[in-house]
Design brief:
By secondary structure, this protein is mainly α. Helix content is 59%, strand content 3%. The protein has eight helices and two strands. It has a two-stranded antiparallel ribbon with strand order 1-2. Helix 1 packs across helix 2, helix 1 runs antiparallel to helix 5 and helix 7 runs antiparallel to helix 8. The radius of gyration is 19 Å and the shape is globular. The relative contact order is 0.12. The model has no long low-confidence stretch (mean pLDDT 92).
Length: 266
């Protein structure tokens, strides 16, 4: 069994105010993602992406990620609670974000962004997709620091006891599933996408890189959900399927469709 590091979730204390690692993870992911997009745009310009539009990408990304992530959590995970307490929807600082909702939010935001700046959607979103695993990597590390989204009980040598996972003295070791996700959704998926971006002509096939990201994330999430403890207020569906897996299945289907479809201008 490994020792859980018990890092303070608040990275910076300023009097009664604190900046959490989770907030820094979002900031780092979005800014580094923007840097990757800017670098790739400099290497091979994205048609229609002006300097003004490039500078605005961060703002649109924040709106899509935060707005979509929050609404996704509200609708997919706790609709009854938030319908009864609608003002709580705005309490983002108390937790509750959904990747699947964030993805829908980002797609919606950049559909509007591309319409405003007259940019072909997949020409831009393919490059953004290649940068997205950076944010996923930092986000999962923040989940690990927060001691949330931990794994199921295990007897493997690298199991960890998470402070808030058990009740009283009943707190056995669990899979550090956040690190599994950081590895698959972050490191592995980023490496695959960077290889396709730099070493192949995938960028000349609009939608292929975006589809690879969507399908790759779905496969990673479906695998890790086999080790991750399901949300206690949801549990399992049909005795063994989690909400994360259910939401990932249509993603996998659509991602594969984008990969195999006949390329066309979009």
């Amino acid at each position: 069994m490994l020792t859980y590091p018990n890092i303070d979730p608040v990275a910076i204390h300023i009097g009664n105010f604190g900046i959490r690692w989770y907030s820094l993870a979002y900031m780092a992911g979005i800014l580094l993602g923007w840097w990757v997009v800017a670098r790739e745009h400099a290497r091979k310009p994205i048609p229609g992406l002006t300097t003004k539009a490039l500078d605005d990408i961060v703002t649109w990304a924040v709106i899509g990620v935060v707005g979509g992530g929050r609404l996704g959590y509200v609708l997919f995970y706790k609709p009854e609670f938030y319908l009864s307490h609608p003002t709580m929807i705005l309490h983002v600082w108390e937790g509750g974000m959904s990747f699947h909702g964030g993805l829908i939010g980002v797609i919606t935001a950049f559909l509007l962004f591309c319409r405003k700046y007259k940019i072909r959607f997949f020409h831009l979103i393919d490059v953004i997709a290649c940068a997205t695993p950076i944010g996923l990597f930092f986000g999962r590390l923040a989940n690990f620091i927060n001691g949330e989204l931990y794994g199921r009980v295990t007897d493997v040598a690298w199991g960890m006891v998470f402070p808030h996972a058990g009740v009283g003295s009943l707190n056995p070791p669990r899979h550090p599933s956040q690190l599994y996700e950081a590895g698959l959704e972050g490191v592995v998926l980023f490496a695959v996408l960077m290889y396709l971006l730099k070493r192949t002509n995938a960028r000349d096939k609009p939608g292929m890189l975006g589809g690879t990201f969507i399908a790759g994330y779905a496969v990673s999430r479906i695998i890790v959900e086999c080790f991750r403890e399901p949300d206690d207020f949801l549990g399992y569906f049909a005795g063994f399927i989690t909400m994360g897996q259910i939401l990932s299945l249509p993603m996998l289907a659509y991602g594969l469709y984008l990969i195999v479809r006949k390329p066309r201008e979009s």
